[in-house]
Amino acid sequence: MPSANPTSPPEQNPTAVATRPITDPDRYSRQVLFPGIGAAGQHLLAGAHVAIVGVGATGAASASLLARAGVGTLSLIDRDFVEPSNLHRQVLFDEADALASLPKAEAARRKILLFNSSIRVLPHVVDLVPANIHDLLSGVHLVLDATDNFETRFLINDFAVQGTVPWIYAAAIGATAATMNILPRPPRSGNLPQPTRLPQPSHVPHLPGSQEPVPLPDAWQPTACLACLFPAPPAGPVETCDTAGILSTAVNLAASIQVTEALKLLTGQPHLLRRTLLSFDLWQPTLSSGLSHSEVSATAPDPDCLVCGHRIFAHLAGEGRPHITLCGRNSVQIHEHHRPVDLAAMHLRLSRHADTNPKMHPDTPADIQDLRSNDLLLRFRRGPLTLTLFGDGRAVIQGTSDIAVARTLYARFIGS
Ligand SMILES: [Zn+2]
Fold this sequence. Notes:
Blueprint: H1 24-33, H2 38-46, E1 49-53, H3 57-69, E2 73-77, H4 95-99, H5 104-115, E3 120-124, H6 133-137, E4 142-145, H7 150-163, E5 167-173, E6 176-182, H8 226-229, H9 241-244, H10 248-266, E7 276-281, E8 293-297, E9 323-326, E10 331-335, H11 343-351, E11 369-373, E12 377-382, E13 385-390, E14 395-398, H12 403-413
Parallel strand pairs: 1-2, 1-4, 2-3, 4-5
Antiparallel strand pairs: 5-6, 6-7, 7-8, 9-10, 10-14, 11-12, 12-13, 13-14
Helix pairs in contact: 1-2, 3-10
Zinc ion binds near residues 228 and 302.
């Protein structure tokens, strides 16, 4: 039987067209059409290296967006494993990941490579601590915060200010999303580290909708750092998504703003960056209430800031961290003497998640079991782990000798 197309080799596989490698022009054509990015911006993104600290809800969403946008190298840092309760908001994970308790950094790498195999993804299944932060973050162009605790954010802030590396804070809790760009002030003099060299544009980009070239500043104008706005981590128990709940839409808004700011920076347009601590409450119906949207100026560094003003890096030196010790063969103790706990209030807060809650739907599995407290201590069980909390903020987690597992349980239910 003659071929329909006499020029085609008769043995050609009719599905061959589907196996043609996907090229960059195929993949990024619609993004390159956007005048703020263009071909030059796309080229810069391919040469960029971004670290994402925390690959939970915000981190997974930001990693997905950056990978699809074509950022050439992503370092993904997370100490945690995928659980079923992650699936409603953590966009890179599926049921198989949760059933296998796959580490989030590795699960994210596998998913990303399914939709963009042309970039590099470096997973790190570790807790970011002062001892490893230089190894993990040195050389990156930008750090994205997607953690769930201020302890790690202040550590990132110390590192970023010391090395003049830009970073972007992001947080989501309940229906609220917040972000802030931190462009550290370079050191004034001496043999201190020089600012991170961002990929440099070869063409002057145009603002969207404009044909006029935009003059580029030589470098970014420094903003406030995290410690300028928050000289100390919040005192007392901090609500987390495990105690206050969270909407996946708030997560995705925080990630969308964070990644958009990242794209501006990585394409050499720091003058377009927001210079405020920006927060949205997606549950409030109108802007006129004044509650749904707020911006706090972060335009300039505070000259009295201990971190960016006086260059004292207490968190990098390990001074801001709770003291953690292994005690016995199968338990971890977290000392937080500086933060007393109201045990009765904590009991009330946790009772919503306990199997003793009479309002809990019978089909809803409780997050914690056997919640009990008295004047001296509070105790609950979660799977094989038992957490005992004392009035001075000290906690003992029995059932593990893994500090990361103990810290995760503590951060999720007691606060960071
Ligand atoms: Zn500062």
